[in-house]
């Protein structure tokens, strides 16, 4: 299949007008890990030296009274305690300065929040099982993750703003370690599912999905890109086009943070981040 030609959308033109650049600044790369057993270990991803953030994906079932389910595809089986060994990899990543963040939601699964109390219950679960709290059944072992990523792609937007608020309050606990909040909204603004949550102003970084959205295949903030044509239904931008045309157009924006890559498996296959890192 031939590579998609780079197209400049009206949204990109808006960013060009709004982010008049005098100087550009370096950014980081964030990547999703956990949905392909052939992508290598979490430690492999961090030891590559490519990433500042790795999102462990996904907690695909939560809320509405359901028992939460962590789905790490072919890596390990959480229900039998088989993923607790990931704790050492998480600590390896953190020792290298890489932030390891649990991503909740995803494109498939069963999740949603039915009430304020439901949001509080999910926040408590995340705190006690993945963050700085304590539980006898921590799916990823004793390592303390750095935060929570909201990749909400199905259902409705109700109560995610409250979930973000409850999680942010935990930053004052656990030795004062901040609970980092990130999100992966679709690029049309406001995102239909994450709009109210993002309006809380509590999110530290936002990796906008500038793919699978034909009107806006290039943009700003953390620019979400697929690492290969096969990684997304549409919106793939070749490394050369990304570094020569897209990134120079947005790096002068004060909100620019870098790029988000979906996902680690395709990144390895296509050598995508290695090709663009020096220009991010």
Automatic annotation (TrEMBL):
Catalysed reactions, as listed in the record: Random endo-hydrolysis of N-acetyl-beta-D-glucosaminide (1->4)-beta-linkages in chitin and chitodextrins
Location relative to the cell: Secreted
Stretch forming the signal peptide: 1-26
Keyword terms, alphabetized: Carbohydrate metabolism, Chitin degradation, Disulfide bond, Glycosidase, Hydrolase, Polysaccharide degradation, Secreted, Signal
GO biological process: chitin catabolic process; polysaccharide catabolic process
EC number assigned by the record: 3.2.1.14
UniProt enzyme class: hydrolase
One term under GO cellular component: extracellular region
MF-aspect GO terms: endochitinase activity
Homology family: Belongs to the glycosyl hydrolase 18 family. Chitinase class II subfamily.
Protein name: chitinase
Organism the protein comes from: Oryza glumipatula
Lineage of the organism: Eukaryota, Viridiplantae, Streptophyta, Embryophyta, Tracheophyta
């Amino acid at each position: 299949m031939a590579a998609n030609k780079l197209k400049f959308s009206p949204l990109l033109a808006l960013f060009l007008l709004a982010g008049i650049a005098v100087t550009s600044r370096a950014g980081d790369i964030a990547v999703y890990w956990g949905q392909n057993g052939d992508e290598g270990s979490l430690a492999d991803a961090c030891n590559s030296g490519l990433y500042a953030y790795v999102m462990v994906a996904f907690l695909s079932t939560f809320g509405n009274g359901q028992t939460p389910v962590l789905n790490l595809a072919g890596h390990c089986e959480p229900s039998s305690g088989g993923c607790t060994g990931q704790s050492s990899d998480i600590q390896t990543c953190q020792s290298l300065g890489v932030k390891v963040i649990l991503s909740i939601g995803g494109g498939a699964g069963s999740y949603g929040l039915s009430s304020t109390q439901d949001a509080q219950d999910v926040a408590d679960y995340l705190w006690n099982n993945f963050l700085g709290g304590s539980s006898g059944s921590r799916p990823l072992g004793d390592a303390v993750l750095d935060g929570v990523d909201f990749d909400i792609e199905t259902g409705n937007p109700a109560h995610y703003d409250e979930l973000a608020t409850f999680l942010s309050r935990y930053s004052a606990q656990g030795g004062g370690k901040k609970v980092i909040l990130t999100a992966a909204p679709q690029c049309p603004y406001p995102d239909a599912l994450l709009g109210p949550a993002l309006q809380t102003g509590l999110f530290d970084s936002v990796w906008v999905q500038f793919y699978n959205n034909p009107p806006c295949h290039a943009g700003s903030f953390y620019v979400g890109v697929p690492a290969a044509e096969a990684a997304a239904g549409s919106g793939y931008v070749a490394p050369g086009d990304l570094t020569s045309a897209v990134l120079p157009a947005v790096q002068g924006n004060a909100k620019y943070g870098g790029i988000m890559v979906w996902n680690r498996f395709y990144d390895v296959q296509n050598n995508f981040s290695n090709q663009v890192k020096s220009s991010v």
